[in-house]
Amino acid sequence: MASPPSSPTAGNPPEIAAEHSSAPPSASPHHKMSPRNRALFFLTAWLIVLMPFLFWWNTWFGRQLSGKQITEYLADEKHPRRIQHALVQLGEHMTHHDSAVVPLYPQLIRLSTHPVEEVRNTDAWVMGQDTSQAGFHEALLKMLNDPSPMVRGNAALSLVRFGDASGRLQIVALLQPAQIIATSAGRVTDTDKVGTAIHQNGLIAKIQNGDQTTEVRTPITGRIRSLAVAPGTNVAAGTEIATVDPSDEQVWEALRALYLIGQVDDLPSIRIYQRELPEISDRVRQQALLTEKSIRDRAAR
What we know:
- This protein is an alpha+beta fold.
- It has 3 domains: 107 residues, Leucine-rich Repeat Variant; 69 residues, CATH 2.40.50.100; 53 residues, no CATH class.
- It is 47% helix and 13% strand.
- The strands form 2 sheets. Strands 1-8-6-3 form a 4-stranded antiparallel beta sheet. A 4-stranded antiparallel beta sheet has the order 5-4-2-7, with no helix packed on it.
- Helix 4 runs parallel beside helix 6 and helix 10 runs parallel beside helix 12.
- It starts with 13 loop residues before the first helix and ends with a helix.
């Protein structure tokens, strides 16, 4: 998380600047800033620093919430990011086996069908933090049919904690690149660049059809592997726009889960990450090797 911006550095005061000026003696003298203008200047500078800090502070999920705030944020339907913030904090309490948050568990089951994808995605992860709850298990099984691939993947990963391999195919899918498809016809007016790192719901391209502009976004976090169209290209609905490789973190989590529940049929998808390529990190490569060994040992038994 980037730290808040530092204060701007003040320049030389007018008196010092005037001593080194090359202007002739007849030039108009510099006027000192009035107390009112000086106050406005420093107020503006302070706001320039303060506003980004306040935005960062209010959107940073690591900021600790009280029990009362967690309860209020979970019910704040107007601000989905507050719900996410509360879910993250609730998950931390659950990992420490804090019984004080158990009365909030019905809220987690309710949020499994929330209309905002990011809320469902976070909720699927949080419910995996307490495997003693049959209600969480049932909700996660239903989330395997969620329209979002990320929600399905997180639900499948959480189910592994329950000892349930029902989401194995969804986990294997986390290793696959995402094909980005045009949802409408029109002329491509803008695209991102190959190799660009991109977050979930990040903008890949724009398609113009008359007065209507459609934004094509990625369903996963990762890196743009390829672009199938260029600006100025006319495309039909259903045309492939780009391919996005999954992020290092997503692949690593999927490989760790398959270490426990993977099958021999999954090996072709796993071996892709055993190659020595710049875009494959050492920890992913090592995990892919360990995962294949675990699957082969399990099959032999």
